[in-house]
Amino acid sequence: MNTQTPDLTLQQQINAIEERMGRLLGLVEKLATENSELKKQEKSLVRECQELRNRNEKAGNQLEAMIHRLKSQSIEA
């Protein structure tokens, strides 16, 4: 009778390990998907940031040109 108890315990341990492995694999898949989505978001945000910098630089250049024109007009007047 004592020989069956260790087998049952061993089987329970194996089942518990299999269950943990299944949860870990699920977690790995979830994290891989999340990581992929975050990389896509990062790429999009970097692109958006660069576009905003370009727009800001363009607006600054336009403002400087306006200021220069206004100064030129006031000197001529």
Structure commentary:
- The protein is mainly alpha-helical and 77 residues long.
- It contains one helix and no strands.
- The chain has one helix spanning 4-76.
- The radius of gyration is 33 Å and the shape is rod-shaped.
Give the helices and strands, then pairings.
Elements: H1 4-76
Task: Give a brief outline of the structure.
This protein has one helix and no strands. The chain has 77 residues and is mainly α.
Q: What is the number of helices?
A: 1
Any idea what the radius of gyration is? 33 Å
Mean pLDDT: 92
Helix/strand class: mainly alpha
**Which residue ranges are poorly predicted, with pLDDT under 50 across at least 5 consecutive positions?**
none
Beta-strand percent range:
under 5%
Question: What level of helicity do the residues show?
Answer: over 70%
Per the principal axes of the C-alpha atoms, what is the gross shape? rod-shaped
Instruction: Return the string of H and E elements.
Output: H
The span between the termini is 113 Å
Q: Give the tally of β-strands.
A: 0
Major β-sheet, in short? Answer: none
Keywords:
single chain, about 80 residues, mainly alpha, about 0% strand, rod-shaped
